[in-house]
Specification:
Elements: E1 9-14, E2 33-34, H1 36-39, E3 46-49, E4 52-56, E5 65-73, E6 76-83, E7 91-96, E8 107-113, E9 117-122, H2 130-138, H3 143-150, E10 153-157, E11 165-173, E12 176-181, E13 184-190, E14 199-206, E15 209-219
Antiparallel strand pairs: 1-15, 2-5, 3-4, 4-15, 5-14, 6-11, 6-15, 7-8, 7-14, 8-9, 9-10, 11-12, 12-13
């Protein structure tokens, strides 16, 4: 296991040490946006509490919680502290470029961190490619494409404890995404979609509940 690198230019940081003016709807601040208005009937799904950001899905939501932060880099690193409070909880780090129109909703690639494994997926040349997505929705995916899609995602066994803080870093260098947890490399995956020239948006994708703190984004260009 290689030690995590600590190079780069810090382009965003948030320690969530602030208060909200009300408790009825999302009010994250510092450039963050959420999908609660469109996907959870405006119900609150993000709460700043005790210097952390608590993300939790509302019972009326028809989609996972998406908490977004604009950014821009070719090569870069996203890191944060996080805590999973239930074995079913998963922290998703989704990298996107809304200006790129050949994929659904700008999806480029993602990292999912759960209590049993870390999963990395190239979405740009995988399931979020618009032509591929259309075929999948129509149920007309060829065997050749099915086999290709299997090569666009990789899962790495890695056990975590619930109710414990961890530090995760997702580092993008050219076509390779490497994930470190508490400074130790736990996953690395190379795929052409990861080399997309500009990553413009970070989505924290949460289907259940996750607690996050000390978010930092670095450019390595």
């Amino acid at each position: 296991m290689n030690a995590e690198t600590k190079t780069g230019k810090l382009i965003f940081e948030d320690k969530f040490e602030r208060n909200e003016s009300q408790e009825l709807k999302d009010e994250v601040g510092n450039g963050w946006n959420t999908n609660s208005r469109s996907r959870a009937n405006r119900h609150k799904q993000v709460d700043l509490k005790d210097g952390t950001m608590r993300i939790f899905i509302h019972e009326t939501a028809d989609h996972g919680v998406s908490v977004t932060q604009p950014m821009e880099f070719r090569n870069g690193r996203v890191e944060m502290k996080f805590k999973l409070e239930d074995p079913k909880d998963v922290l998703g780090l989704n990298f996107a470029d809304l200006k790129y129109k050949k994929v659904w909703a700008g999806h480029l690639f993602r990292v999912n961190v759960g209590v049993k494994n870390v999963e990395i997926a190239d979405l740009k040349t995988g399931v979020m490619d618009l032509e591929t997505r259309t075929l999948r929705k129509a149920g007309t995916v060829s065997k050749e494409l099915q086999e290709k899609l299997k090569t666009k995602v990789k899962r790495f066994p890695n056990k975590l404890e619930t109710n414990r803080w961890y530090h995760v870093a997702a580092e993008v260098i050219d076509d390779t995404l490497t994930v470190f947890i508490d400074g130790e490399e736990v996953a690395s995956f190379a795929s052409e979609g990861i080399a997309h020239p500009t990553k413009r948006l970070l989505r924290l994708a949460v289907k259940r509940n996750v607690v996050v703190d000390d978010v930092q984004i670095y450019s390595l260009d």
